[in-house]
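Discussion board: Methods & Data

I've been asked by a reviewer to show the raw model output for two of the constructs in my manuscript, not just the figures. I'm not sure how much to include, so I'm pasting the format here to get opinions. Each protein appears as its amino acid sequence followed by a line of discrete structure tokens. Is this the kind of thing reviewers expect to see in a supplement, or should I convert it first? Here is construct A:
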Amino acid sequence: MRIIAGSKHGMKLLSPKTEVSRPIIDRVKESLFSVLYKYGLPRGRIAADLFCGVGSLGLEALSRGAVFVTFVEQNEKVAAILKRNIEKAGFGKESKVIMADALKVGAPAGVNQQKNDVVFVDPPFDWTRDVGGGSRLSSLLSLVSEQVVRDGFVIVRTHRRMFLLERYGWFEAIERRQWGTSAITILQQVNE
């Protein structure tokens, strides 16, 4: 696992020796960020990385020009490795780590208490077996809707067999891509 592009191109990320986290493979991450470029992401943006594990998505965003990333991770051992990866990359001033359940805190405000432009949601696949109204994902998106800017984005990774709803409150699915066993759905907040 490594940072694919940007200022920290090629930097290897530390990871746990156990199967506690489910890292996104390089090919999927590279393809995802290629798609995000067409939306002007992540350069110059504030982001949050929920269920972040060792920080693969958030660190990639920082390497590619995001100005700040809030990492949310519940597992203490994984969060310790995440902090080492942030230090290794030299992104201490551009990030903060919150040890909490993402379902309870969502995507807290970033630098200077500004709302997020983009939120990465990468929960365990089992967690996303139910993506309908009233699901954990639906509840999380409801919380996150207050924590993103108008027209902000949420990127949700699921198993390829799972299809998100077309709409969750203010969020509308605008694109879905599939690579290997992973599917990425891009949601955008639409304030009508």
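Construct B, same format:
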Amino acid sequence: MQLEIITPEKKVYSGKVNVVQVPGTKGLFEVLEYHAPIISTLEKGRVKIVEGSAESFFHIDGGVIEVKNNRVIILAESIKG
């Protein structure tokens, strides 16, 4: 699936991934390929990205995630990678 992580300043990440784990308002949740459409708010915490066998992490200060048509967009207030 395609993932984009965007802050008000710039696009931080863009690429194909297998799994995205985010800090939702009610706890951590994962998005896999062909996930049902969803929009959710995000809390301050860690975003985990899995590309094949490689893992990447970003720390966000909250935001919003949208999942639709095998595409994930994370709009983060600010980010540390």
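Answer (T.O., handling editor elsewhere):
This is acceptable in a supplement if you add a one-line summary per construct. For B, something like: The mean pLDDT is 96.
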